[in-house]
Amino acid sequence: MELAGLPALELASLIASRDCSPVELIDATFARIETANPAVNAFAWLRRDGAMDDARAAEKRIAAGEARPLEGIPFTAKDLAAIADGPTNLGSRAFQGQHVGVDAGVVSRLRSSGAILIGTTTASEFGNRPTTESALFGATRNPWNLERTSGGSSGGAAVSAALGIASLNQASDGGGSIRIPAACCGVYGLKPARARITLGPLLGEDWGGLDVTGPITRTVGDAATFLDLTAGPAVGDPYWAPPPPRSFLSALDERRPLTIAVAYERDGETVDPECSAKVAETAGLLRSLGHTVTEAAPSFLPLEQPYLVVSTIGIGVLDLTDEQLDLLEPRTRVIFDAARETKAVEYVRALNEMHLQARKVAEFFEEYDALLTPTLSRPAPPIGEIGKDIHGAWNDYRNWLCWTWPFNVTGQPAASVPAGFSSDGLPIGVQVVGRAADERTVLSLSAELERARPWIDTRPPPW
User: Fold this and answer.
1) For residues 431 and 374, is the Cβ–Cβ distance under 8 A?
2) C-alpha span between 264 and 440 (Å, rounded)
3) What is the Cα–Cα distance from 46 to 439, expressed in whole angstroms?
4) Is the C or the N end of the chain the one with fewer CB within 10 Å?
5) Cα–Cα distance, 318 to 327 (Å, whole number)
6) Where are the domains of the chain?
7) Number of Cβ atoms within 10 Å of the Cβ of 145
8) pLDDT digits (tens), the chain, 463 positions
9) Which sign, positive or negative, has the C-alpha torsion 456, 461, 462, 463?
């Protein structure tokens, strides 16, 4: 039986029926890594021995009738996430080989559900680039075209999902870092609402509340399951997202007519016609499914300057020695220098302005249940093309990411949904944005699109 690429829910069913064992699944997963990873460079660290030990322990629990919901299912964690039994490099030479000795809350909860950590996936340094290219790891390549970027900063997680290595891939998103690589690699990426999943125990908030953790998966159902098993605060968290009325997974079966805004362009930014066409196609599909779709969008321009200040400080707060500073990539060093020159009062003003302007965007959603946009303004660019100017990288990034970062500011849930391919064979994603703390609507709409145009069997070509 070909196990690579099967959804976590299907694998869990196979394990429960004894048609597949955890040891067999972990063995197949590492065989898939050995075959695929040399070409794409998606992993920062592999946990083969520990994963096999966990698989054997899982088989004992299954035999004893003590199986947990995801018993024996492989998952990956991003290199920025805290790992108790392996390195957390933060994508940086300055922290290469760092062991923090504790799991991030999201990793701990996945392990407690029975899922098995197989390793960590590549990221850009401190997650500060929308492509997964670093001095530590090199470039993580797009499986649809090895000369193109996988997106970032969670590129390794998206490549793992696209290649069917792990069905559950933990990622993080401070400006699009879940949705960008998901769109580039043709998979599903869900940025949950702010504070939906704890960032503890090592973080209270990250990037002034911009950063969240969430899943990149092949199916909407797996993303919903990931959320069900990891959502919730930890004691001492600075803020909590209100719990949903029912499970996130149950949202996939709920259908009701929605009022959806659709936008093709943003504040004068240039959008590739093929990306706009996929949004129009998706809007038409949603109308045919009974939803009211109207062209409308709020203005995001007032969010940009405070976002840049807060995200810069978010990256530059790490306490580094002079030796570590010398190991930073040039662009990251520019950010650190800018952060150190920013006064505390300037940061607080930017944070307050960011949240004030976010309220105005949130008012737009009093009239609409959801917003449909392009995920990115164009498909994945060639590796190394974007962000070459270390002092003006944002000028490169701002157009490409014009639809992703605003919803880190507002804290709203948003997902990149596969929408097809460009004429060059590159994946294109559309973004579904929900109201504050309303992942259920995002998941419900995503599931409708998945049923209408299934993408699970669409695989990257062999190299």
Assistant:
1) yes
2) 24
3) 32
4) N
5) 14
6) 8-452
7) 19
8) 688 789 999 999 999 999 999 999 999 999 999 999 999 999 999 999 999 999 999 999 999 999 999 999 999 999 999 999 999 999 999 999 999 999 999 999 999 999 999 999 999 999 999 999 999 999 999 999 999 999 999 999 999 999 999 999 999 999 999 999 999 999 999 999 999 999 999 998 888 999 999 999 999 999 999 999 999 999 999 989 999 999 999 999 999 999 999 999 887 789 999 999 999 999 999 999 999 999 999 999 999 999 999 999 998 888 899 999 999 999 999 999 999 999 999 999 999 999 999 999 999 999 999 999 999 999 999 999 998 888 778 888 989 999 999 999 999 999 999 999 999 999 999 999 999 999 999 999 999 999 999 999 898 987 5
9) negative
- The letter for the amino acid at 290 is G
**Cα–Cα distance for residue pair 333/226, rounded to 1 Å:** 35
**Do 94 and 123 meet the contact criterion of CB atoms below 8 Å apart?**
no
pTM metric for this prediction = 0.97
The residues with which 78 forms a beta bridge, in sequence order, are 121
Give the H/E segment covering residue 184: helix 179-185
In contact, 7 and 167? CB cutoff 8 Å:
yes
Helix axis angle, 330-341 to 301-316, nearest 10°: 100
Q: What would the two tokens of residue 368 be?
A: 């609409």
The catalytic site residues sit at 78, 153, 177
Distance CA 432, CA 165 (A): 26
For residues 428 and 278, what is the distance between their CA atoms, to the nearest angstrom? 8
Going from the C-alpha of 427 to that of each of 141, 227, 408, the distances in angstroms are: 14, 25, 23
Alpha helix ranges (H) inside 247-364: 273-288, 301-316, 322-327, 330-341, 344-364
Using DSSP's 3-state secondary structure scheme, residue 211 falls into coil
Q: Which two tokens stand for residue 295?
A: 């062209």
Q: What are phi and psi of 120, to 5 degrees?
A: -115, 150
- The highest-level CATH class for domain 8-452 is alpha beta
Task: State the Cα angle at 177 between 382 and 235, rounded to 5°.
Answer: 165
Q: Which residues contact 118 (CB under 8 A, 6 or more apart)?
A: 26, 29, 30, 33, 46, 47, 48, 51, 74, 75, 76, 165, 166
Query: What is the end-to-end Cα distance of the chain in Å, rounded?
Result: 22
Q: Which residue has the tokens 């990956």?
A: 76
